[in-house]
Design goal:
By secondary structure, the protein is an alpha+beta fold. The protein is built from 6 helices and 13 strands. It is about 25% helix and about 25% strand. A 6-stranded mixed sheet has the order 1-4-6-7-8-9. The protein has a 4-stranded antiparallel sheet with strand order 10-11-12-13, covered by helices on one side. It has a 3-stranded mixed sheet with strand order 3-2-5.
Length: about 250
Amino acid sequence: MYQPIPPRPPQETMPTMYDLPSELVGESGLPDEFHCIQADLLSETCQPPNYSSEEILVASDLNLYYDPRHSLWYKRPDWYLVLGVPNTGQQLDLRLSYVVWQEGVDPFLIVELLSPGTEQDDLGQRLREVNQPPTKWEVYEGILRVPYYVVYDRYENNLRAFRLTGTSYEAISLTENRFWLDKLELGLGLWQGTYQQITGLWLRWYNTAGWVPTLAERAQQERQRAEQERQRADRLAEYLRSQGIDPNNLPE
């Protein structure tokens, strides 16, 4: 009896990140200094307490391939977060691109940093051209159905956030340019300060205790704690000496 051969799963037949281009020479919209620094700050402070660093992916300007029917179509978000995917600890295993039909998980949040030439595309104000890929808004809202989409315009200091409700994005009402994401136990908002020696208004993560510290801030906090411990030990030693006790000869 004839036994039909079942079709192979897409993971075996579709192109992988090794088959797809990770960048195109001469491509417009590649990151400038602000985009790089802002993406670093988002990545450093994105520390959801209910997810380990091994099960989240934060990516900046990493090609996002989204449609298996048009495998060469991609978007390049300025920054995005994917939950529940394995994160590698080996350099050789770093992703060249993010391919949704291989990973099986769509992004949870996407951030676009507005540039004068990308505003219409980022905000869904540009109509899709015939025989051309869909706009970013159409991909994030209608194809990938990304739960949260954030757009920050540093020229106007304007932060906009959208939540997927049903089949479309709805604007989130912001309080003091901030909004909270229950699933992450984190919030995202605008912070005035200095990062990488550049002062300005930055998009940054916060938790119930305040702004999530950067690597430099954590190092500074450790130095301050160490200095406080040293001062406490010095005060204790001085007190013992005042009582006629040598602090260096205390019993074990």
